[in-house]
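> run fold Transcriptional regulator, TetR family
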Amino acid sequence: MSYCSDITKNRILECAKDEFLNKGFEKAQVAEIAEAANVTTGAIYRHFKNKEELFYTLVKEVYEYTLEIVTAVESRTEKAGYKNVLGENDDENIEAMFAEVMDFVNYMYAHFEEFRLIFESGKGSRVENFIDEIVNRYTAKNIKMMSISESKNIELDEEEELEVHILTKGYVTSLCECILHNIPYDFAGRYIKNIIAFQYYGWKGLMKFKLK
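> ok
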């Protein structure tokens, strides 16, 4: 691809980002993106097969990186046998969880507009169910975590599994709120630490309650 072609492609992507952020994936028009980028629609289609590919190009990096993070958490929890995930030293565990989550939150803020595209503008695109996809994977992990303890196994019924799903979705969406509510970064650390403490003691208390 030539230098001029790269410049054109980057200009198309910048204009597409604005169009998608303002109108969402479904209502965005390739013709209006072309007009804003001062190119023909044909020029856009030379770089991108369709509107879907254009949108996904903008979010591909953050989408795939986030799923890699989820996979890493799943792998680490599985290696631990889903036992002692919360551990005994509460303060150290909360600090470790906070540091890990803040690494991802920092990544979200570094790619703020791309996450806005997914969360706010993704309806109708291939990433429309991004949050639900993550929630479902974390729910499966948390159900196993709830089912296995050092002393005995707990059989969760369908209603209890739904409870785990609801609690898990609350956690995942609480992280997304940083973007959805445009929370200032200077406040994000305190907000996330409160969320982590709430989740940590909540899950720990719930697991002890289930073991009674």
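Residues 51-79 form the longest helix (29 residues).
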